[in-house]
Amino acid sequence: MNTHQTHIETLALLARTLGNAHRLALLEHIAQGERSVERLAELTDLSLANASQHLQHLKRAGFVQTRREGKNVLYRLGTGPIAPLLVALRDYADHQQARIHDLVADSRSHPARLEPISREELLRRMSEESVTLLDVRSEDEFALGHLPGAINIPVEELERRLAELPAKQNIVAYCRSPYCVLSVDAVAALRAHGLAAQRLANGFVDWKAAGLDVETATRVYDPGP
């Protein structure tokens, strides 16, 4: 394994450690000052055993350090730019929430602007073969499951791969969920290039939950009756 790949694996490990709401809550409290495990468990509404388990994960990854004071074990942030990392995560979460809020507000005040297509209408157009489905999620998500016949062009590749889309057929873009901003960005980009485009009102997760057919990279999954 080369140095770059090792670095990526380390980043993935750190991301997995932080990919837990309880651990992030614990870090937020520890960032405000050194605290005992008992106090941290109280602040996060966790059992002592559960809090201790999450803290051990954080400690192994270097996010926290400990010291003993009498019978108490006190936790503090580890070395390195951990506090700025927490701030960056909060800022990004706020950014995403703001985009989703804007999307909801825009769809309410200007319902024609986004022109979402319902699942029922999409099924009708699919039966008539009068629509092109565009999945703007990542390649690995697409491989795990997608709407039948969909073309996969991740949204960040859309501008340079426009030639792969039909110029005279309506395009319906979709991503993960109803308020996934990827499909909104895709529709805006397609319309800017003169293509007729809409977004699916519901994303792939809702489609699958409704028991509709799903294709994978190798087969079509029919949920049956």
TrEMBL record:
What InterPro entries does the record tag this protein with?
ArsR-like_HTH (IPR011991), GlpE_sulfurtransferase (IPR050229), HTH_ArsR_DNA-bd_dom (IPR001845), Rhodanese-like_dom (IPR001763), Rhodanese-like_dom_sf (IPR036873), Thiosulphate_STrfase_CS (IPR001307), WH-like_DNA-bd_sf (IPR036388), WH_DNA-bd_sf (IPR036390)
Q: Coiled-coil regions in this chain?
A: none
Q: Which domain of life is it from?
A: Bacteria
Report the residue ranges that make up the HTH arsR-type domain in this protein. 3-97
Q: Give a single Pfam family match.
A: Rhodanese
Q: Which Gene3D superfamilies match?
A: Rhodanese-like domain (3.40.250.10), Winged helix-like DNA-binding domain superfamily/Winged helix DNA-binding domain (1.10.10.10)
Q: Write the protein's name.
A: Metalloregulator ArsR/SmtB family transcription factor
